[in-house]
Amino acid sequence: KCGSSTRPIRQITLRLLRQLNGRDVDAQWLELLQSHWVDVQKAALVEVARRKLDGAREIVFSRLNWDVPAPGVWDGSSRTAVVEALSEFDDVESQLKIVAIWRERPDIFTTESCHSALMKLIRRGVLADDTKLALVDLLLSDDMGMKSWRIRDVLAACSDINIANRLMEWLRTSDDELSSRMMAIEDILASNREPNILQRMVSSVNDLTVRDTVRILYAGALSQSKGEVPLHVCEMLIRDHNCRIRALGRRSRMVQRL
Fold first, then answer.
1. Alpha carbon of residue 254 to chain centroid
2. In this structure, is the dihedral angle defined by the CA atoms of residues 19, 21, 24 and 29, taken in order, positive or negative?
3. Residue 132, Cβ neighbours under 10 Å: how many?
4. Are 252 and 209 spatial neighbours (Cβ–Cβ below 8 Å)?
5. Confidence band of 237 (pLDDT split at 50, 70, 90)
6. Rounded to the nearest 5 degrees, what angle is found at the Cα of 231, between the Cα atoms of 225 and 236?
7. How far, in Å, are 78, 113, 129, 184 from residue 68 at the CA level?
């Protein structure tokens, strides 16, 4: 049935096969890697990785450049299956391959696949520091619209001090103005609860030598911070000479709780 020319029949059969276990079933999944149908090969690649069959990692790595068109208008290319399969492994090299594919293919299907894969790794508690910093570099490499928002989701879920430090160092020398990248950075910093990061943002808002775009970004992050922002910081924002920072202070989480 997995070889049927009717796609719904193939998909139903694959769903049923996923529910079965045993050596014969495992052997069937390996055989399906050679199927005539791309959707069947995609399913087989992910399932081989998920089941950790003998040589699974080598099989997935042998298909890193596998790139055939989507079998249906709402399907991603074969690269989405490669990403999903890579997310079944915990090693850093596999994680960095996901980031590399995301950098190479910023289309909507690959973006959603990479986002889901990396969030899965976060839930398992295995996302490596090298992978996090590679994602920061990807975010900072260009203003990528929707991809910026999906990278933001992953980095914000990490709430990692090294991520915040890297972003703040970039902001110190950047001349970037309002962009999806800058808004993504604001949200990532707002997710960080580290007192040291909060204090550095407060100091930067107070520093009139810092350009207004960055001061406004930090004020926005502080106003929506998940960390403990003292009330006097909100009062400081409300008294700032910049009207946008004053507005952010009035809308801050702390003020809204009063």
1. 28
2. positive
3. 21
4. no
5. very high
6. 90
7. 6, 16, 32, 32
Q: How far apart are CA 171 and CA 153, in angstroms?
A: 19
pTM for this predicted structure: 0.91
What span, in angstroms and rounded, lies between the C-alpha atoms of 14 and 1?
A: 9
- CB-based contact 161:196 (threshold 8 Å): yes
Integer Cα distance of 133 and 128 in angstroms: 9
Q: At 251, is the secondary structure helix, strand, or coil?
A: coil
Euclidean distance between the first and the last CA atom of the chain, given in angstroms as a whole number: 63
Can you tell me the distance from the alpha carbon of 201 to that of 199, in angstroms, rounded to the nearest whole number? 5
d(CA 245, CA 44): 53
Contact 178, 213 (CB under 8 A): yes
Q: How far apart are CA 113 and CA 158, in angstroms?
A: 18
**pLDDT tens readout for residues 16-42:** 999 999 999 999 999 999 999 999 999
Whole-number percent of the chain with pLDDT over 90: 74
Give me 246's structure tokens: 């004053």
